[in-house]
């Protein structure tokens, strides 16, 4: 199978300077947006690996600006840490010295990275130490980019974490209720409506300067951190497509959302869905060990709230999609988006109940 994949990819690979003969190709990683492959190349008897990605232009239509973002970020990080080649992704240009190659036949775009050896990713946190290492890596990533020179980064997904606009869409979809599904989720609708006032807290503070704009990653799941195979240390943040201007609270809040839940995102039995305060504590320790020096007092104060906000926002998006007919999030069974919404809202309620303990961790 791998040789069949390689043969299909050869017309693409020949457009990158791999300095050798492609010998193997295999699907790689667990991402759902881009098509990703690990390429093995024979360089005069030495086996070298690369990552090839087909860029999803439905999600990221402006590939030149997207890749300009990634170029600026990776070059800045490399200058910051020139002694460690594994500390950042390294782009491999095409034969025209461009950071991606566009197929003239079908318009599809591809990019290449050096493969990071001796490290791997995990899809779920299994220990407080992993949570600590992931948060430490994301904090270091934000800290290193705090002085990124030049214009603000291109906004690859407009209003991605603009929670008030997410809420307005929810209200519009609820009002239309084209499928009559609102009757099935009255409890969840009431929960959403009761939390409307909190939606604009971060957006308003960004607008009036109480919170600073930062370079943020916006997809801070643990599988976007490479962990050293021997030490378990978080060494490199990957998947830079959603890096753009935002608040650090978006990043840390999504770390809380994706790390501290004790059950799957679509778990139907809510008694299994709990907020793990110990994992939250590990996140706080890891994150502040690298980000604490550059964060403002207001950013630190709102770190616990960020988990509630991002978890609520995600639940709201699931609820909106359920009401609209499951048009955005892929589902594998009836009612799955509503189940996802329920787990997120359940976690929000648990975070609210443990707000004081969360604040004490940060203090």
Structure explained in plain terms:
The protein is of the alpha+beta class and 363 residues long. It has helices at 2-13, 63-80, 128-144, 163-176, 186-194, 201-208, 248-259, 277-291, 297-301, 303-324, 336-353, 355-362; strands spanning 21-27, 35-43, 46-54, 91-92, 101-102, 109-114, 119-120, 214-216, 225-228, 234-237, 244-246. The strands form three sheets. Strands 1, 2, 3, 4, 5 and 6 form a six-stranded antiparallel sheet that branches. Strand 9 and strand 10 (234-237) form a beta hairpin.
Distance N to C terminus: 54 Å
Q: Output mean pLDDT.
A: 94
- Annotation, overall tally of beta strands: 11
Content-based structural category:
alpha+beta
Largest sheet: 6 strands, antiparallel
Structural Rg: 21 Å
The coarse overall form would be: globular
Helical residue percent band: 40-55%
Percent range for β-strand residues: 5-15%
Regions with little confidence, pLDDT below 50 for 5+ residues = none
- Helical region count? 12
Give, in order, the helices and strands.
Answer: HEEEHEEEEHHHHEEEEHHHHHH
Topology record:
Blueprint: H1 2-13, E1 21-27, E2 35-43, E3 46-54, H2 63-80, E4 91-92, E5 101-102, E6 109-114, E7 119-120, H3 128-144, H4 163-176, H5 186-194, H6 201-208, E8 214-216, E9 225-228, E10 234-237, E11 244-246, H7 248-259, H8 277-291, H9 297-301, H10 303-324, H11 336-353, H12 355-362
Antiparallel strand pairs: 1-2, 2-3, 3-6, 4-6, 5-6, 7-9, 8-11, 9-10
């Amino acid at each position: 199978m791998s040789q069949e994949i390689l043969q299909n990819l050869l017309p693409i690979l020949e457009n990158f300077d791999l300095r050798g003969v492609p010998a193997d190709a295999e699907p790689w990683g667990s991402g759902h947006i881009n098509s990703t492959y690990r390429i093995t190349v024979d360089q005069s008897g030495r086996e070298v690996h690369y990552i090839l990605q087909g860029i999803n232009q439905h999600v990221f239509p402006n590939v030149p600006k997207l890749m300009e973002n990634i170029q600026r970020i990776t070059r800045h990080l490399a200058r910051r840490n020139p002694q460690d080649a594994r500390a950042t992704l390294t782009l491999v240009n095409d034969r025209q010295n461009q950071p991606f190659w566009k197929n003239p036949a079908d318009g599809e775009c591809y990019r290449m990275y050096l493969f990071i050896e001796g490290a791997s990713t995990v899809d779920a946190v299994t220990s407080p130490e992993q949570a600590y290492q992931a948060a430490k890596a994301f904090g270091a990533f934000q800290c290193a980019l705090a002085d990124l020179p030049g214009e603000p980064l291109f906004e690859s997904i407009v209003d991605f974490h603009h929670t008030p606009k997410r809420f307005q869409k929810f209200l519009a979809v609820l009002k239309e209720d084209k499928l009559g599904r609102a009757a099935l989720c009255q409890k969840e609708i009431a929960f959403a409506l009761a939390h409307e006032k909190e939606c604009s807290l971060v957006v308003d503070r960004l607008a009036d300067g109480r919170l600073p704009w930062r370079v943020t990653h916006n997809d801070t799941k643990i599988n976007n951190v490479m962990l050293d195979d021997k030490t378990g240390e978080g060494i490199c943040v990957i998947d830079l497509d959603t890096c753009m201007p935002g608040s650090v609270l978006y990043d840390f809040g999504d770390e809380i959302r994706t790390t501290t839940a004790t059950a799957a995102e679509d778990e139907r039995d809510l008694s299994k869905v709990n907020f793990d305060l110990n994992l939250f504590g590990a996140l706080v320790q890891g994150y502040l060990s690298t980000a604490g020096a550059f964060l403002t007092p207001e950013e630190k104060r709102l770190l616990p709230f960020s988990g509630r906000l991002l978890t609520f926002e995600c639940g709201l998006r699931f609820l909106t999609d359920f009401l609209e007919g499951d048009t955005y999030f892929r589902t594998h069974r009836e009612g799955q988006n509503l189940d996802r919404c329920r787990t997120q809202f359940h976690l929000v309620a648990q975070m609210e109940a443990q707000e004081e303990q969360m604040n004490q961790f940060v203090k």
